[in-house]
Amino acid sequence: MVDPVVPPFVPVLLAAAVLPFLGRRAGHVLGIIATGVVVPYVWLTAGGQHLQVLLFGFEAVLYNVDPFSTLMGLIFGFIGAVAVLYSWYTEASSLQTALALSYVGTSLGAVFGGDWLTLIFFWELMAVTSTLLVWHYGGRAVRAGFRYALLHGLGGTLLLGAVVWHYVEVGSFLFSAAPGGMAGGVAPVLAAVGIGVNVGFIGLHAWLPDTYPRPHVAASIFLCVFTTKTGVYGMYRAFPDGNVAIAYMGGLMAVFGATYALFQNDMRRLLSYHIQSQVGYMVAGVGIGTALGQAGAMAHVFNHILYKALLFMTAGVVIYRTGKESLKKLGGLGREMPVTAAAFTVAALSIAGFPLFNGFVSKGIIISASHYDFPAGPVALGDFHTLEVLLLLGGVGTFLSFIKFGYYAFFHGEYDDSVADANRGQTVAMVSLAVLCIFYGIFDGALFALLPFDVTDASVVSNVYVTYTVDHVVEGVVLAAIGLVGFVLIKKPLSSISHVPDIDSLYNPAALYGTRAIVVGITELYAVVDRTAATATGLVGDILRDPEAVLERFTGRDSIQLRVDIGTSVALVTLVIVGVLVLMFA
């Protein structure tokens, strides 16, 4: 073990600062090294290590090592290195990769912060760096990035309010200052909604499918990883003992995201809805609040980053080679791009939770926790609890969505032209992730060793988790069979659906025209104030130069008559004042 000399975000942010001034090759190599070294550095740092500093005049813990932050640091560092490699071979500019590294660095800062002040500081920086990464691509990404910034600015503000309220309640920013997470009655609500933006609560989720399909395909790899998973980590810090409402929200997210994904034809938009769906499983695990639930949530964070990055990589290679993003314009690419098709298949089976793939392991832990550690709920079906049913329905929707994706992109029909497969660097990146998806699916003990709680120890969890039981394997196969049969039944009507509106169809124009109205209103108000000030200044000048002419202009009477009227008025006022004084003192 080593002592933490510097927090792991430091080398990543330093690399981001110098990368634009290097050549593409040297810059990307530096980026791979800077993110890659985070993995052994975090792995070799003993738990309990921390670095205390002064931040904005308050005592803060800039670097804190515990099992949760260690797991997040390991997967963030690894996926950052693989994503930089992919960026290099997908013609990303040095500036784009530098912005991506700044996003990685601020995310590391957030998950290694030992208190709320440090977390919210990096949380806001993470929103800024990810917005810049989106904007860098230009075009439609600019407006999407603007809406992204507005919503994350709102979420960050609510979380900041929760942090301040928490500090007033307990007098400290430390996570450990209040054993139940956010203290008081108001702070938890503000935190739930503020963090809910990042994790994609239903109604706060539309920035995901709105933003992630817009930027460069390599940028989407970074975006699909850090914001939502940091949000799950923040949700755990706010609710370490769980929360029933948050657990049910997670279950609903699993179903909602998978359902909307099924209607999408844009590949990256489909994948973005499935981020919401899969994060729903993690949120449900956090909401359950037991050791089994939290271990499942963190296991799914780890696994999801592997297979979701792989899915975005395969979609990115298709777009990179064909220039097409819609499934309706593709088909038959499996014969043209066998490596990409094979990588997609591994990732699809992983995200759907098929046996022998990593998603099967982590989803199983959460579903087990929803059965053994959570109330049956209002709509339990036989031995299946309400939350459990929602998570299983989300699994069926996931199978349906990725059968559709794979069918229309790789296996249906023939592609019109000859298409090259992934290049060398893209292949290395995809194969690396695919191998790990299979490895952690088969050797589940390797995943269990990374978790904050030992799910195989009866003294730690309420129900010892065993991945490969007959019931569990049958459940995974049955969900796949239902998905396959379901797709056959709905394929024809599904192909006729071109667009299903989501909440972004309301808030996108609201954001555009609302901000435009604010800008125009402020501009017009300024113009009115400016004209009024100019007129008043001119009038004062005229009065000083020739007051009688001004009076004649406004009253229409000559100066002699005005003098008489003014004199008469002054005399009358004087008489009234004198009369009042006489009456008062008589």
Automatic annotation (TrEMBL):
Q: How does it sit in the membrane?
A: Multi-pass membrane protein
Q: Keywords for this entry?
A: Cell membrane, Membrane, Oxidoreductase, Transmembrane, Transmembrane helix
- EC number(s)? 1.6.5.3
Q: Indicate the transmembrane segments per the record.
A: 6-22, 29-48, 68-88, 95-114, 120-137, 149-168, 188-208, 220-239, 245-263, 275-295, 301-320, 341-369, 389-410, 431-453, 473-490, 566-585
Q: Does the keyword Iron apply?
A: no
| Recorded GO MF terms | oxidoreductase activity
Record's superkingdom?
Archaea
| A Pfam family assignment | Proton_antipo_M
Where in this chain does the record put each NADH:quinone oxidoreductase/Mrp antiporter transmembrane domain? 114-369
Main location (coarse class): membrane
What compartments host this protein? Cell membrane
* GO CC terms, sorted: plasma membrane
Entries under PANTHER family matching the protein: HYDROGENASE-4 COMPONENT F, NADH-UBIQUINONE_PLASTOQUINONE
This protein's name: Monovalent cation/H+ antiporter subunit D
